[in-house]
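ugh finaly. both done.
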Amino acid sequence: MDSSSSAVDRLVPTQRKPLEPGQVLITGDVAGDKLIDTRDLDARAGAPLDVDYVTRRFREVHRVRGVLLHEVLSELEPHWDRRHKMGRLNVVVVALSEDGFQVVLSLAEIDPEFGANRALLATRYNGETLQRPTLVLPGDGRASRYVRHLCRLRLLNVAPEDDPQSRSDMSSTSR
């Protein structure tokens, strides 16, 4: 193999095998992708929690059990933007369901030091064990950001490019 073809081979992403039932892939701006299994999360699940929210027709209350999303993400090595004092404030989490529904959260909103939203990867819903976790946001008044059949979490660093010109343009317009 010549050197030009090996350079091209390194640029071509490797194909992922499909997720098994019960698996969730965590990827993005992290040191390495991680697969988590719903059964493993269920074994770590905390005490049951009642969540309530309003639908179009009425108020619902459900009992869920799971692991805090922040706790799971804390086990990874994210790529913070080291140019900024608080680079982790520039990270978003994209939660994707099997059917393509997605929700975006900021990492800061689920961090206990900032927003302290107790986002939960629920493994049990009203006593029923789930095949894949449901992202539950107990503080939300509606369930619109709940992601059922969660299959992927992607961390993305959305820090602005280090462009001194754009900063000076913004500072002159904000006066």
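ok and the 2nd:
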Amino acid sequence: MVQDIYVPILNYNTGEKETDESKLITPNILSSINSFLDLKKENFIEELQDEIFRLFNISIEATSYGQVPDELIEEHGNTEANRIFFEGNNKETVYNNCKFNIVSYNNENPEKCFTIFTEIDWDLEHGLIIHFADGKFIEIE
């Protein structure tokens, strides 16, 4: 699958378009991109799935979703109706329903940091923000 890589083109200090290519694609940005491309899914996938599933469970217990049919709620109760509606039977299905959309790199940080912005059906407004540093999963917001 082809992914776009977005590089900031504005100078944050002046607000003007940056024309100096060395300021646009810095060694730190290249290092972060390579760190992302070199990720070994098997090194963090279990922990990432566990954390996404934990957040999913917190959300479906605390939220009454307008799109979940009333009949489903009456039959199963709010939490289980949410679980059925969002197909959240286990951590694998919750993870597989995530849409990993955008990878962002931090040019200010000395570590090889990047963030993956993820769309999730059970929180379309906020989604998930997954942080990595030096090729390791750090946290989810």
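summary for the 2nd one i guess: Strands lie at 99-105, 113-119, 128-133, 136-140.
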